[in-house]
Amino acid sequence: MLGGRDKKRGLRDSERTRERLLQAGFREVYRSGFQSASIDTILAATNVTKGALYYHFDSKEDLGHAIVEEIVAKLPQDKWLRPLQGGKNPIDALIGIVKATSVRPEDVKGGCPLLNLAQEMSPLDEQFRKRLETIFIAWQEGIAAALRRGQSQGTVRRDLVPEETAGFLMAMYEGYVLLAKNAQDAKVWNVGIRNIVGWLRSLRAPRQSRREGRRLMSKGRVVKQRQ
Known about the structure:
Helix content is about 80%, strand content about 0%. It contains twelve helices and no strands. It has helices at about 5-30, 40-45, 50-55, 60-70, 75-85, 90-100, 105-110, 115-120, 125-155, 160-185, 185-200, 205-225. The chain starts with a helix and ends with a helix.
């Protein structure tokens, strides 16, 4: 009979095995798409038996659902929602988020994991579609909440509808992700970042917008003087 310490160690090992399978599964799905993802490739990457995989996940679909809920769902949370919860000016925060987007060749080539799965699986599998929709809704609401906070603080234009503005930002951002992926060219993304940042600046409340304009003009004069 296993002692308490051995039981805890076994539980930790089981949890680590499950996490390794999730991470390897995510990488394989990101690389190949869910339908083409190979269970054998996932097993080889983790050195786990097929029996162990099916101990943790009932099927390939069950693994895919867990990847969406436990890994893909965290991507917009980490990149977008946490930085927006800091209480700072939401426009500044959104500009910082967009500017921090990676344009490394491997990221441009792979595109957005959330968008990739939504395009592939939403028309085919209702369980995938619902899980992905939940992520998009949380992402949109997180941006909208930050914009509403900015309106109450006087830093965001009051004529905006936060939910619609958030949805437009997401569509613009993911659209440029898709264009850059199709072109396999980081320059497309750089143009997108510049355009999105310019649009975000237009969302500032009038007083904030004038202040931003003076700051940019002052910065431009400093650059000219140095030249």
